[in-house]
Specification:
This protein is of the alpha+beta class. It has helices at residues 6-15, 64-78, 116-119, 123-132, 192-196, 202-218; strands at residues 17-24, 31-38, 41-49, 86-89, 97-101, 142-144, 151-153.
Length: 236
Amino acid sequence: MHIQNTKAIQNALSLGDYELKGQFMLGSNYTFLVDVHHEGETYQAVYKPSKGEQPLWDFPDNTLARREVAAYQLSEALGFHFVPFTILRDDGPHGPGSLQEYIEYDVEYHYFNFTPQDKEKLRPVVLFDLLANNADRKGSHVFFDDDTQKLFAIDHGICFHEEEKLRTVIWDFAGQAIPKDLLPPLSKTDNWRGLLQPYLNPREITAILARADSLLKTRHFPRPLQGRRAFPYPPV
């Protein structure tokens, strides 16, 4: 379930011992459900070891776990708080990797069957994906948790490339103005380089800052680029 005590889950994932409980079989990279034990409590988390990543022709090897953490840092910097707490750990059962808070949700309820009202809540996710240059925003990567119906977004290993890579199923707002309340964080990027430097290379961080500046100028959600694939495969 979603952990209400944010400090407790952050301390547990940062300091606790964790053991493998199962493997998520969908997806090309090794992903495990783990139990994290800390101060007499047990929390569930998702562990993605770097050595379980399948090589990609366009992303540097063994960097996807770091990109997961960078996505959490970006979500926090924007004030969106929809990426579950994610940290890099060097002492995992299969070596270094990302460790992310596990969120309980209805796997049958995703973007492709969201109500119109729930789809209207996705503008921050679209803005985040533009900044993160998300190359794999599938319909199942956005959901609402069981406890509070809070919006969450996951699976950000294939993000932050310096070249244009955006592939997403969420084009609902293409051409529309970005809501004014989402714009202020884009002008407060002074600390982003420091936040992201442990996880991304300098060119990738510079590209994020350039995308933020561009969005501040256009103030509109872009339309899909012509001549390149704009949707992930598979879409769910």
